[in-house]
Amino acid sequence: MITGLVTTSAIGIVLALVILHKMRRNQLNGPFALWWLMVAGLAIVVPWFPHFLNHVAHYLGIAYPPALFLLLAIVLILVKMLSMDLQRTRQDKKIRRLTQRLAILEHDIRQLQKGDGPSVSHAEKNSPVSATKETSPMDDRG
What pLDDT, in 10s, does the model give residues 3-57? Predict the structure, then answer.
């Protein structure tokens, strides 16, 4: 039993060290690092308290306590996947808007180079400076 505890805790410690190293080298951002540090912390702590898992499994009516651990792991994976999909959707919207703005600006530049100034500059019309409310063009929460 002790070897399983030590092995699982060692895996958690190595994972935590790798995450901290990636954070230090700026290869992993804060929210993502926090998620993985939480996973590493659980890998370090949970094996040392197996009776807690047994009590929770019994309370929930699960006959085989390791099945609770697997169920929690699956739920955490699904939550992580959902959060990644939400973030990807926000990034896709932002990329689409930036691509559209770039196309408008390139069109305006081509018109200026021809000598035909744009009658109403799309860039100025959609500019955050001319907008009545003070928001950043990068601020896309909707």
Answer: 878 888 898 899 999 999 999 999 888 888 888 898 889 888 888 888 888 899 9
Question: Is 75 inside any structural domain?
Answer: yes
Residue 53 lies in a domain: no
Query: In this structure, what DSSP letter does residue 46 have?
Result: G
- Please write the tens of the pLDDT for every residue from 61-71: 999 988 888 89
Q: Which amino acid is at 42?
A: L
Domain membership flag for residue 141: no
pTM of the shown model: 0.62
- Cα–Cα distance measured from residue 36 to residue 19, given in angstroms and rounded to the nearest whole number: 7
C-beta separation of 59 from 49 below 8 A: no
In a domain, 38, yes or no: yes
Question: 4 lies in which domain range?
Answer: 1-48
CB 29 within 8 A of CB 72: no
How many structural domains does the chain have? 2
Spatial distance between the Cα atoms of 86 and 30, rounded to a whole number of angstroms: 17
Rounded to whole angstroms, how far apart are CA atoms 32 and 36?
A: 6
Q: How far is CA 24 from the centre of its chain?
A: 18
